[in-house]
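Hey all, quick one. A colleague (J.T.) asked me to put the manganese (II) ion job into the tracker so the inputs and the structure tokens live in one place instead of scattered across chat threads. No bug as far as I know, just bookkeeping. Sequence used:
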Amino acid sequence: MTLGSTTRSVVKRNHAIIAPDGYINSNVPGWTGGTVNVIINEQMGARLCQTLVTLTDAGQLTGATEASQIFFYVVQGQVQATIGDDSRILTVGKFVYVPIGQSYTFKNPTAGTQVLTFHKVYEPLAGHTTPGVCWGEKDDSKAPVYMGDEALRIQELLPNDLGFDMAVNIFTYQPGGNLPMVETHIMEHGLLYLQGQAIYMLDQQWYPVQKGDSIWMAPFCQQWAASIGKEPSVYIYYKNVNRFPT
Ligand code: UGY
Ligand code: MN
């Protein structure tokens, strides 16, 4: 038996790694029949919220968005999502973006279904309409190479439209692929590793990460990553976009 006194999770001023071994469940009104892990939110200094919900076959998520829009992505299993009068079965890799002021229900999951959510307070932009509900699947998106590097591919899941103030992308690194530079930028990230292993550099500190781990990167947290191991490493990530810097 191990003491359980170690973890790869770290929580710092401008970044965090959250490994599943430290999850403690939250009770979220309307989200029942499963576990809800709040992985990133304003309590840690973030301006986004990221959760991971694991449902039993009796699980249900019912609610209505208010100031925050919510992006729901199925990581494992399947579930029936109803937004307004549109109802669809979401299997692995499918998602729905729920704009502000919209009711939603997720029900009839298979046992063990996992749903990742990204929440952000919506910032309207004069002259642009607030986005509507957006359904999709990761394989609908093209996967162009990133900055000319064949080992890196990015899929943009949400439309490239100024009405949106958040992006959600899937980033695939072939074994040995690495970011072409250390990024230093105003945008914030939340991410979940969907596959593989990597070394992530955050604020000049180095971390081994793997499938199931989440990372928060505050604005201007320096970041670099390299895929390690024999399979591609893949993460889905949030980024705030398209708004005037204040
Ligand atoms: O879009 C991005 O900023 C992305 N390249 N960052 C990252 O993967 N850490
Ligand atoms: Mn980045």
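Adding what we noticed when we looked at it: The chain has a mean pLDDT of 97. Residues 183, 185, 189, 223 surround manganese (II) ion (ligand 2) (CB under 6 Å).
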